[in-house]
Amino acid sequence: MLRLLKPRLIAWIALLLVSALLIGCGSGHGSSSSVPIANIQGPWEFVAYSTGGYVTGIDVALVEGQVLVSGLEEPNGQISASSAQITFVSLDPATSDATGFGGINCLPVTSTNSLGPGSVTALGAPINFTFTQNGNVFNVTGTLSGDGSSIFNGTYTAQAGNPCTDPGGTITGTVLTKLTGSYTGTMCPPSSSSCQSSQDFTDNATATLSESSSVLTLTLALTGTDNTSFTLTGPVTGNAFIVQGTFQGQTLTYNGYAEIVGNARSLYLVNGTSSAQPNYVGTLSMP
């Protein structure tokens, strides 16, 4: 009887060992599967609240690198933006309304602007990057939200050697939607080099926006001093854009920023045709 049980016992032990091996392999496979890297490419706005009292909007067409996985392109977590993909907007600390472009805290305004290098892993995980404003470099750390649409607990610090007076502070970030819709109000005529008082804003304007592939189309219909319409196009970075077109045979450049004034979606416009003397031309509101 004992002789008969021994082969059976050995068979049962062998079966248990094989089962354990299979289970172990299965568990190991599950534990080795990595969490997908978050894809956060697209339009973002980061708002930096300096301890020095400055507030700066950092509007970015964020790019994320790609890597081939099983023949398919997937995000690799490396984020960046070139000088053409980032815009700095000066914001009023009390109202958050736009007051100008380029960032008043790090002058003079230059083209030495960028975001990155930076990295992100998974949703709900840390995110870090650098940004360069007019040649001044800042380090950013924060946490990406669980849905990948914002960052929180963000801080930014100035790198050693920055001539800029901004010491750093806190920073937030939000994914943005494309700019669309119509805005109305009064504007300074495009041919005017300066509008100082409300009496100078003599054009009634309707601005219509549409965005496709990071390019904004702005159509302006004017009545009053001017009775015409014309179209400008150019790159858009988050809520900010720079568009060019032709008015009365001359090239015209407008800087714009979509914001909330009071409870109304609004469009802040500056005539930047003369980069040395940008001219505020009006704030239009969405009806």
What does this structure look like?
The protein is mainly beta. It is 11% helix and 55% strand. It contains 1 helix and 18 strands. An 8-stranded antiparallel β-barrel has the order 1-2-3-6-7-8-9-10. An 8-stranded antiparallel β-sheet has the order 11-12-13-14-15-16-17-18, with no helix packed on it. A hairpin with a 6-residue loop joins strand 4 and strand 5. It is globular and about 60 Å long.
Largest sheet: 8 strands, antiparallel, barrel
How many helices does DSSP assign?
A: 1
Q: Classify the beta-strand content into a percent band.
A: over 45%
Order of helices and strands: HEEEEEEEEEEEEEEEEEE
Query: Which whole number gives the mean pLDDT?
Result: 87
Radius of gyration over all CA atoms, rounded: 27 Å
Name the poorly predicted regions: 1-5, 9-13, 15-33
What's the arrangement of strands in the largest beta sheet?
Answer: 1-2-3-6-7-8-9-10
Cα shape:
globular
Q: How far from one another are the termini?
A: 95 Å
* Category by helix and strand content: mainly beta
Helix content: 10-25%
Tally the beta strands.
18
Question: How is the topology of this model organized?
Answer:
Blueprint: H1 2-32, E1 42-50, E2 55-69, E3 72-81, E4 86-91, E5 98-101, E6 114-120, E7 126-133, E8 136-144, E9 150-158, E10 168-175, E11 181-187, E12 203-212, E13 215-224, E14 228-237, E15 240-247, E16 250-261, E17 264-271, E18 279-285
